[in-house]
Amino acid sequence: MAGSAERNSAQVIRDEAAKLFFERGYDATTLRQVASAAGLKVGSLYNHIGSKEDLLQQIMGSVIDELLERVQACVAEVESKDPVDRLQAALAGHLTFHAERAQQVFIGNAELRSLPQEARENVVKKRAEYESFLAALVDEAGKAKLAEVIDSKIHVYSFVAQATHVAGWYHPGGRLSLNEIVEIYTRLALRELNVADADERAVGKALAK
Amino acid sequence: MAGSAERNSAQVIRDEAAKLFFERGYDATTLRQVASAAGLKVGSLYNHIGSKEDLLQQIMGSVIDELLERVQACVAEVESKDPVDRLQAALAGHLTFHAERAQQVFIGNAELRSLPQEARENVVKKRAEYESFLAALVDEAGKAKLAEVIDSKIHVYSFVAQATHVAGWYHPGGRLSLNEIVEIYTRLALRELNVADADERAVGKALAK
DNA sequence: GTCTATATTGCGATAGAC
DNA sequence: GTCTATCGCAATATAGAC
User: Which numeric CATH code is attached to A61-202?
Assistant: First the structure.
């Protein structure tokens, strides 16, 4: 039973800090608030974190890396060679990740400025890599004449902007279920690309792992 | 010649502060930096502002109010009774405003949390009003069978998310001109709504006042 | 590991001379 | 209006007892 649902202090601190950073922002959150939320006094925090900045990095950590891995994995699992199927798999992973890890994703976007230079540059680079990956999928669909691409960068911006926005308001139990959200935004995406039978294609494929 | 291009101190302070708030965020910006950018010492700032919070409110001020007015005016000027024409006019105003006033819009979104309660609630209310206005335009197009509406709230979220994203990266002299940006995003919007001849309709109408 | 001090820094804001 | 000097406070971070 070791390592089960039990959260150690470091994990509790990260979770509570993430909640506060999400609600109030990194700069506006004090370590006293974090400590209090975690059931500790300020001084005790430093048995678990190196600094406030270190805590932020733990939270933002490797969100973008994990997003890229996740979406690439989704695409890799697709058997079909249809570029639109591949793009859909990417979008499903993209949207699901943004909803399921909404707080982390939101912090990762909003607090990019709060990171020290090196870490920030790493994230920026990885993000460009991520956008290139999606843009390539869009372009493949375009070359196969299955999509009418206006500007692949802007299409990707659109996907990114929408998912980021979802991360700002999604919470389980809202008006729309996660599956509905994935389905709707996938329809929007395919429509934006003038994919034939966009609505039909998008239905019922919302189950990304 | 009075009141011409001459910027008074208060205006300089607002502009420099907006630049810094945009780049680093409100909390991370010190009034000493603002003063320095405006060519003053800290103490002198207080001859022009009441407090740091007051300065933020001056900058965020009435962005959302002006956005709503602007977009409503764009729609009101449309002679055509075609709901899609009206929606397009709104989108052109929406996008143009977000690009031209990018810094203010961006701050208005990112620093909503930094506002005192009352001011924040005002903005939230106005924002809901704005989104309702856009949603009504979407629904009109849907009822007229000129658009296939999936979920008008989500369509509006999509417009909002995209324009907000644009406000984060647009600057004059970039890869795409403002007119190109408006045209592209309008095409995306009309495509999302399955408007017939979306691409043709969106072309060459990008000149919002 | 926890806690109670406390050191240190830098912030917003003010006072008062010019 | 500008400046210099400083107040008062709250923040991060540390020291050291338990």
Answer: 1.10.357.10
User: Residue A65 corresponds to which tokens in the numbers above?
Assistant: 């890396």
The pTM assigned to this predicted structure is: 0.96
- Pinpoint the residues of chain A covered by CATH 1.10.10.60: 9-59
Residues near strand C (C-beta below 7 A) are: A 9, 40-44, 47-48; B 29-32, 42-43, 46, 51-53
> Which nucleotide is nearest, taking the CA of residue B29 and each C1'?
C11
pLDDT, tens digit (0-9, with 9 covering 90-100), for A109-121? 999 999 999 999 9
Residues of B in contact with A199 (CB under 8 A): 148
Domain A9-59 in CATH: superfamily?
Answer: Homeodomain-like (1.10.10.60)
CA angle A19, A112, B123 (to 5 degrees): 65
CA distance A85 to A92: 11
- Over residues A186-207, the mean pLDDT reads 92
Closest CA to B207 of B69, B92, B51, B49: B92
| Cα distances (angstroms) measured from residue B101 to each of A46, A149, B84, B127, B168 | 43, 28, 25, 16, 11
What is the residue-averaged pLDDT of chain A? 95
The answer to whether the CB of B202 falls within 8 A of the CB of B190 is: yes
